[in-house]
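haha ok so turns out i had the wrong file open the whole time. this is the CORRECT one, sorry everyone. sequence first:
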Amino acid sequence: MSESLPLPDTLEACQQELRQTRRAYAQLQGQYQELLDSCTSIQDAQQKLLQENEEQQLTIQQLLHQLYGRRSERHKDARGQQHLDFGAEETAELAADVAGLTPDEEIVVQYIKRRKQQAEQPRSEQLPEHLPRRTERIEPPLPEGVTREDCQEIGIDVVEILRFKRPELWVRRLEYPKYKLPESSARAILQAPREVALIEGGRFGVDLVTEVVFGKFVLHVPLYRQQDALAQLGWSPSRSTLCQIVATAGDLLVPLAFQLQLRVLASPVIASDDTPVTLLTPGIGEGSRQARFWIYRGLHEAPYNVFAFTDSRAREGPDRFLESFRGILLGDCYSGYVNIEQVTGGRIEFSACVAHGRRKVFLSREQCPALSSPILALLAELYEIEDRGRLLSPAQRWVLRQQESVPVMARLRAVLDSEPARRVLPKSKFGEALSYLRNHWKAFQVFLRDGRVPIDNNDTERELRRVAIGRKNWLFIGSQDAGERTAAILSVLSSAHRHDLDEWAYLADVLEQLARGTTDLNSLLPDVWKAAHPDRVRTFRVDEKEQRAQTRRYLRARRRLQQREAASLA
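then structure:
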């Protein structure tokens, strides 16, 4: 052990050593603080990197889900949950006492009975009877020395083969003879009046114009591909000719589209949504910019879809369209809608789409599974209530919502205001989803007060697929006028589709009557035209929609029964 250092023996030496000790201590204290600060900054940086990595992983998962995942946002049942087995024997037992069944059980029993009856009915493989038949008799070759008269016919095997003949173009040649009248007549020359033509000069008939418009906006075939199809039939039109055909048809349909707009604006509830489209702006900026197609879907009293075109997403477009509307507007929480009550002085009340809020929670659920699960479960409960009220009148649906949906919304608000929810980072994806629900809570509750208002805007979003599929083919809108004409065409065709009409036949009749100058626009409304032309209703589409609706009701009723059984076992 080394000897200890000698202590100072004078006051001055003691003071000097004390000063040196203090300086050394201060220096060590500063180094320690720097080390501590650097550790804290490293921890903050690590925390920030972890958060950014989590956000990026969530974004990757969302993109993969959009590409390969299921579109459904239904909250799945818990693993290991037992389910009821509605087999044939149990169905027969339930059906024996139909009067004692609950509404859900009755839906399940009726669905299974209907499917069983369909399975028992043999499916006919015969081709439709209304199709014309062209009979060909195929005689067999006879052996040498045998004539047809020597044979006795004992039967005929009939084989029917469905054939297809491509459309064909033909020219309708109209001759208008001129007659010179006697000198005693008031007129010198007599000639029949010319037929009204859609295109100036009368070169293209209604059926050709209808085919071009139908091909672009219903079948989503752009004009340059239609050129190829028409050339194969013997006519090679220029692109500008087809554009002129579409433009003329759009101008003719503007009055009818405006009539649809007036009907929609007069209804008490409107649903709205928008989607982007590229607008060409030659010589301005980059040569193109993002414009918008808006859809306004009337409900109940006005079952029509009206499209509008704007060159931006500024709120001036919706404000101009809705300037005469008074009622409830359903849509997503677009900034131009959320404060529309203050802007319009209470003339318009905004109702938020619950599906948008649910989607935000669903897409970020993996960031906070413990909290997202009860939120999605409560939202699923709301949709189960809506499913049971789907076939009710608005007044009955309001009563159901007041009795069952209002308490569910109160429980949802309690979860949003709970301490775990408040601790979620506000800038995270899940935190943004919670803020979205909190910030627009008043608008999310509007549907509870009015049975006419849907819980979400999904039906309107589906109508925008017409634009989404189309722009993948025709890619852009050439000008502001072209956008407005396209909106008129989409309004007419989308409304016809909503009523399950044969869109080609409807469009042809509407174009012909408008070209003749008809002023009875009410008779051209899709629902009125449908009543006058029942043979032009696509009944197979009506049957398909009804079958899908029955299947959805069955699956939801069965799921509710399974959940009740699981709750009783627990």
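Confidence is low (pLDDT under 50) at residues 77-92.
again sry for the mixup
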